[in-house]
UniProtKB/TrEMBL annotation:
One Pfam family hit: FAD_binding_3
Domain FAD-binding stretches: 6-218
Family: Belongs to the paxM FAD-dependent monooxygenase family.
Protein name: FAD-binding domain-containing protein
Keywords (A to Z) from UniProt: FAD, Flavoprotein, Monooxygenase, Oxidoreductase
Coiled-coil segments on the chain, per record: none
Protein's UniProt keywords contain rRNA processing: no
InterPro entries membership: FAD-bd (IPR002938), FAD-dep_Monooxygenase_BioMet (IPR050493), FAD/NAD-bd_sf (IPR036188)
TM region(s), chain numbering: none
GO molecular function (one): FAD binding
Keyword Membrane applies: no
Length: 443
């Protein structure tokens, strides 16, 4: 059997699942099934940063141009004191495109997900989507992964399905991950970060009479307002028609919630209270959120896993490396996963279960250390941004002052040139392509 005849099952149609499907189809794989619990993709969500390492993969897959056309090119970032709106640091980002080959864009999650989905639909002869369909049990991880499929339509009976390769791209609450660590006797707990987030989108029509906010939505700038244990990051998306705000603050609404609870309806007054000591500009932005449309997310991560692979099954994206948003790399890393999986599976020297396992371990060697390094870097950046009064904050603010004078690192790691080099300068497809034989031999 040729590699492209392998039957591949992908659980989850998020960024990692969609990218895996599209990348595999581009490599000629013919039998790709994507199982998604939702009845359709819905394309809800807020803004998302489209960093050069993500753009490079999307361009390689042939979908970047359409996504880029709806995005905004970010040319500068400003880090400011939340309470006073005083600028702590300003970083010019014009060098990004000439250095990494792609601009640093920001867009709407709808545009990114839809771009990937439309790319998949062009391969409808190779990719079959099963919406309103969940996988309720993993029966085996190999040699041929076997699982129970349960349609949401109760008039349809659950059934058993098999594949040659199973990819668990089913998110932070991954069924595949839970089953895998149980089968391997691994302990990997959910880490409660004690942080939560609001996602807010302000339409340009709402602020036409507010010249200060209108200037922000018309800009090519990311702005971050920081305070003790809290910050807000904001930027325009959708061709400068929407201003996207993402906050991080102490978790007070989920303290007694179970691990399965990740979102809750919030009150506008509670949200305003969290940022009550921030500047009037921030207060005005938050006040544009309609009453009843405040939603809060709990931010959780996992303890790192010793492996992402079990027999002919591999984990993808948030199922194995959920990341705090402080580096804006969560979706980008899931997209890198999908691209690398397609490379290693296309290079299989044989299609027996042992070779499939070794190829999946090659994927893990390309991706695991990098992904976990960025998970930790995102957490460290969040800690630096959220310092209260004390020596550590004084040291951080000295770094910001040095940056304004043109020297030193950026405490906000997202904007630090050395960190950007580590993240944006890495070509995951090239790494997988050039080092496959080495990694395959080590598995």
């Amino acid at each position: 059997m040729a590699q492209q005849d392998l039957k591949i099952a992908i659980l989850g149609a998020g960024m990692g699942g969609l990218t895996s499907a599209l990348a595999l189809a581009n490599k000629g794989f013919k039998n790709i099934d994507v199982y998604e619990t939702a009845s359709d993709l819905g394309f809800v969500g807020a803004g998302i940063q489209l960093a050069p390492n993500m753009a490079r993969v999307l361009d390689h897959l042939g979908v970047w141009k359409g996504i880029e056309a709806e995005a905004v090119n970010i040319e500068e970032t400003s880090v400011r004191v939340g309470a006073s709106d005083t600028e702590l640091a300003h970083v010019d980002l014009h060098y990004i495109e000439s250095t990494y080959g792609y601009k640093h864009m920001v867009g709407h999650r709808y545009s990114l997900a839809n771009g990937l989905y439309q790319g998949c639909l062009k391969h409808s002869d190779k990719i079959t989507f099963h919406f309103a369909t969940s996988v309720s049990e993993i029966q085996s991880f190999g040699p041929k992964p076997t699982f129970t499929v349960t349609p949401r339509d109760t008039s349809k009976q659950p059934y058993t399905s098999t594949a040659d390769v199973l990819l668990g791209a089913d998110g932070i609450k991954s069924l595949v991950r839970v089953a895998m660590i149980s089968d391997l006797n691994i302990t990997s707990d959910v880490k409660d970060t004690q942080q939560a987030a609001y996602r807010i989108m302000i339409n340009k029509d709402q602020i036409r009479e507010d010249p200060e906010l209108l200037a922000l939505i018309n800009s090519t700038k990311v702005t971050r307002w920081i305070g003790e244990k809290r910050h807000i990051i904001a930027y325009p998306v959708s061709n400068n028609t929407i201003y996207n705000l993402s906050t991080t603050q102490p978790d007070s609404n989920f303290a007694a919630a179970t691990n399965a609870t990740y979102t809750t309806k919030g009150s506008k007054s509670a949200m305003l209270g969290v940022f009550a000591d921030f500047c009037p500009l921030v207060q005005r932005m938050l006040n544009y959120v309609p009453e009843g449309e405040v939603c809060e997310w709990k931010l959780r991560t996992h303890e790192p896993l010793p492996t992402w692979v079990h027999q002919s099954t591999a984990l993808v994206g948030d199922a194995c490396h959920p990341t705090l948003p402080h580096l804006a790399q969560g979706a980008a890393q899931a997209i890198e996963d999908g691209a690398v999986l397609a490379v290693v599976l296309s290079k299989l020297p044989a299609t027996d279960p042992e070779s499939i396992h070794k190829a999946l371990k090659a994927y893990e060697k390309v991706r695991k250390d990098r992904a976990y390094a960025l998970v930790e870097l995102a957490a460290a950046s969040g800690r630096a941004l959220h310092l209260g009064d004390g020596a550590a904050k004084e040291q951080r603010d000295k770094q910001f002052a040095a940056l304004k004078a043109g020297k030193g690192p950026v405490p906000d790691k997202w904007a630090d040139a050395d960190v950007q080099k580590e993240i944006y300068g890495f070509d995951c497809v090239k790494e997988a392509d050039e080092r496959f034989a080495e990694y395959f031999g080590l598995a």
